[in-house]
Amino acid sequence: MNIIACIAKIHRATVTQADLNYVGSITIDRDILDAAHIQPFQIVQITNVSNGVLWRTYAMEGKRGNGDICLNGPPARHFQAGDKIIVLAEAWMDPKELPSVKPVVVFVDDNNKVTKVVEHSLIEPFTKE
């Protein structure tokens, strides 16, 4: 059995655009994608910190260095320019792989410039006594 695990997080990015008429997806500055090790067309989950909406779509590569975070298609109804979001990249894996997973957390400033990248490792698993 495989499970879905978080392998990367973009923390509190700022939406720069919402385009209802685009086919779909989230466009993310290539610098941010690289820092998070997120691949174009990889499935991501987006949480809007401003209103609590959660959306799942795929990442599209945006122009490097311009800070773009654009919600395209239907999510443009729930995400607006200026909203703060959290983007989680997911991967299917065998639970035995979890101890070796070190999710990357990418911190950005208000202009979506990468300020810090941190790797997390598994904390001691919870065990019932």
Description:
With 129 residues, the chain is mainly beta. It has a domain at 9-93: Barwin-like endoglucanases (Beta Barrel). Helices cover 5% and strands 47% of the residues. The protein has a nine-stranded mixed β-sheet with strand order 2-6-3-5-4-7-1-8-9. The longest helix has 7 residues, at 30-36.
Number of helical stretches of at least 4 residues: 1
The CATH topology annotation of the domain at 9-93 reads as Barwin-like endoglucanases
Record the strand order, biggest sheet.
2-6-3-5-4-7-1-8-9
- Rg measurement, Å: 15 Å
Mind summarizing the main beta sheet?
9 strands, mixed
Shape: globular
User: Low-confidence runs (pLDDT<50, min 5 residues)?
Assistant: none
Structural class: mainly beta
Provide the succession of SSEs: EEEHEEEEEE
What is the highest CATH level, the class of the domain at 9-93?
A: Mainly Beta
Distance between the termini: 26 Å
Helix content: under 10%
Tell me the number of strands.
9
Mean pLDDT: 92
User: Judging by the overall fold, what is the CATH architecture of the domain at 9-93?
Assistant: Beta Barrel
